[in-house]
Automatic annotation (TrEMBL):
UniProt-recorded name of the protein: LacI family DNA-binding transcriptional regulator
Origin: domain of life: Bacteria
Parts of the chain that traverse the membrane: none
Keyword line: DNA-binding, Transcription, Transcription regulation
Gene Ontology terms for molecular function: DNA binding
Segments forming domain HTH lacI-type: 6-60
SUPFAM superfamilies named in the record: lambda repressor-like DNA-binding domains, Periplasmic binding protein-like I
Organism: Paradesertivirga mongoliensis
Pfam families: LacI, Peripla_BP_1
Length: 344
């Protein structure tokens, strides 16, 4: 049985009004009497009338939808950011279409092209680990698609961006380890070209420099798939286990890399893994249960999602071309666990 929707024509026929009168009454038009509005609205509520979104989008040339592209929905940071996105979008009359790249550039491109083909009014995106080439985004942006970056951003497109203070987070996480007595601190991080990688690495280096600890390039491991492939993390852990002077602590730059690193340490050298100090970026609420416990750098993910959506809706609804853009930087929070300072 085919689902049939009620149209404005059906309401007009039932009430004996013209379709234009019904349409204006539903929109609250000033030229329609209050009595007519009351009759139309009461009848529409009685039959549970809802405007046809496809018809509206054709008429207004807008879909009232926002496309979202993230790396992994299951990642705690992105799931919290999506909650923030939806809290603003739905209250502003927009639907949210969510896709994930799984750190794959080709899938990211396909997701964006699919969203554009569905005529989303704007796009929120956090780039995948493989995304060196964003020419496809440039092309859409030049054609007029409003785009806002959050978390993993690009400077190649002049638009709004919302990020965490990654330098601050990297600095505080590393300095905490130093103040806990560690002097040989390794760093596991994302793909080298990502904005978050560069910023967190600079924070790590600044903390080492402040405390006059030499930077050791062999202690830094770049994980191109951000912890999604366990073999990649296993290989990074094996590399540090082979070093003559192993790190006595690790600053880990990403949620999934943290959990994958803990698993690798358990598999490859349980004794070493139980003693090493660890701090890292994670928005997981179960971090205190990890063994060894992780001192946590938390990002304001929900607020980042909210602010990115507010900026995107401003772009979408602007009556004039927008030429001035801003990068909003939100502070991170260091949550320490005293059991981190178990020296090797």
């Amino acid at each position: 049985m085919r689902f049939e929707t009620t149209t404005i024509k059906d309401i007009a026929k039932a009430l004996g009004f013209s379709t234009s009168t019904v349409s204006r009454a539903l929109r609250g038009g000033y030229e329609i009497s209050e009595e007519t509005k009351r009759i139309v609205l009461e009848y529409a509520e009685k039959i549970n009338y809802r405007p046809n979104p496809i018809a509206l989008s054709l008429k207004e040339r807008r879909s009232h939808s926002i496309g979202v592209v993230v790396c992994e929905i299951a990642n705690n940071f992105f799931s919290q950011a999506i909650n923030g996105i939806e809290s603003i979008a739905y209250n502003s009359g927009y639907h949210v279409i969510i896709t994930q790249s799984n750190e794959n550039h080709e899938r990211e491109v396909l997701n964006v092209e699919h969203l554009a083909s569905r005529s989303v009014d704007g796009l929120l995106i956090s780039l995948s680990s493989e995304s060196n080439d964003i020419s496809y985004l440039k092309s859409l942006h030049e054609k007029g698609l409003p785009i806002v970056f959050f978390d993993r951003v690009s400077e190649e497109i002049n638009t709004h961006k919302v990020i965490a203070n990654n330098f601050q987070g990297g600095f505080e996480a590393t300095e905490f380890l130093i103040k806990s007595g560690y002097t040989k601190i390794g760093h596991f991080t994302n793909a080298a070209h990502l904005s978050i990688t560069r910023e967190r690495l600079e924070g790590y280096k600044a903390a080492l420099e402040k405390h006059q600890i030499p930077f050791n390039e062999s202690y830094v491991k770049y994980c191109s798939y951000s912890g999604l492939i366990q073999d990649e993390i296993d290989a990074a852990v094996k590399d540090i286990l082979k070093l003559k002077e192993r790190p006595d602590a690790l600053f880990i730059a990403q949620d999934k890399i943290s959990t994958s690193t803990l698993l690798a340490l358990r598999k490859l050298d349980l004794e070493y893994g139980c003693k090493i100090g660890i701090s890292g970026f994670t928005n997981s609420n179960v971090a205190p249960l990890f063994s060894p416990p992780i001192t946590v750098v938390r990002q304001p993910a929900f607020e980042m999602g909210q602010q990115a959506t507010q900026l995107l809706i401003k772009l979408i609804e602007s009556k004039h071309p927008v030429t001035e853009f801003e990068t909003k930087t939100l502070n991170t929070q260091l949550i320490t666990h005293s059991s981190t300072n178990r020296k090797l």
